[in-house]
Amino acid sequence: MAQEIMQVSPLPPFMMNALQEADYIVHDHTHIKDPGALSKVTALVGTGAAKVDKKLLTMLPNVKLIAICGVGYDGVDVAAAKEKGIVVTHTPGVLTDDVADLAMGLVLSIGRRIPQADKFVRNGDWVSDTFPMANKVSGARIGVVGMGRIGRAIAKRAVAFDMRIAYTCREPKADVSYVFHKTVTALAAEVDYLVVAVPGGDSTKNLIGASVLQALGSKGYLINIARGTVVDQPVLVQVLKDKQIAGAALDVFWDEPMVDPELRRLHNVVLTPHIASATEETRRAMAALTMDNLAAFYQKKPVLTPVPECQG
Ligand code: 8YV
Question: Tens digits of per-residue pLDDT, 195-251?
């Protein structure tokens, strides 16, 4: 019998095809209103952008799995899901390299002003002007906020750039030899590049605010590949305008895809449209892992990658 699932965010076409080929009946939550149909849905599927709150779960009495195609699941009310006996899965591991690659790409882009240099050549400015010099990235100090899979992968890449690496997270990691700082502010005060690699959600909301950015200082850069919510965006815009920090490279924002026009007008920023995991290879691997979680669930086997709150 075909299983009925509901997509809770747009999904890439290859994933929609795979779901249809695997015989799932895929409902779209923006269309479905009929309570009879809602009661047939047994699993939800969405990307990291999916919002699954208590209200939605109450409308779906037979859902027992929420399969997120993404490592971040901050849009899912996991406590409400657990109360209803719903398991939440995500796709850790398969996207780590891509996210860390983009983080380093952003470090180089903002530090060496690569997008600005590109514009300089395209505009024909080179003919009459000299592009201003930047500061060296190799050997500079990098601070990683969060030493999970992605933080570690960023640090590993920074080693190859001879960067001096420090980090912060809840507790120092026994197997990590980089310098540990107890607070983000203390870390920010000691680095040239502050890279945010923590999960989103309430516990990290506005973690990077005025005091952190002031500590980072006028020669420091902020890089965010985590979630927009981790940075107090209006404060960031103000410190960028006042040149209280040197610049910011951001892949994530408040209220995506609507990016604050003030931020878009600034010259000391590099902005990318939440593309950290957006390579063909990785997005397909994420989709495959999501499909595997779904298949395991319907075959009554343990799911492959439950979120930490749903483990054990
Ligand atoms: C995308 C991400 O948002 O994995 C995450 O947490 O932020 C990204 O990979 C998305 O989930 C892609 O499907």
Answer: 999 999 999 999 999 999 999 999 999 999 999 999 999 999 999 999 999 999 999
Return the bridge partners of 28, or none.
Answer: 7
pLDDT digits over 274-301, tens only? 999 999 999 999 999 999 999 999 999 9
What is the token pair recorded at 81? 């899901």
**116 and 202 fall within a common domain:** yes
- The answer on 84 and 183 residing in a single domain is no
CA 276 from chain centre, in angstroms, equals 7
> Which residues are marked as active site?
227, 256, 274
**Does 254 lie in the same domain as 302?**
no
Q: Is the CB of 277 under 6 A from ligand 1?
A: yes
Kindly state if the Cβ of 71 falls inside 6 Å of ligand 1.
yes
CA of 275 to the centre of ligand 1 (A): 8
Domain that includes residue 249, residue range: 96-271
Q: Residues 34, 108: one domain?
A: no
CATH number at residue 184: 3.40.50.720
Nearest residue by C-alpha to atom 1 in ligand 1: 48
Terminal-residue alpha carbon distance, the chain: 30
CA angle 99, 133, 219 (to 5 degrees): 60
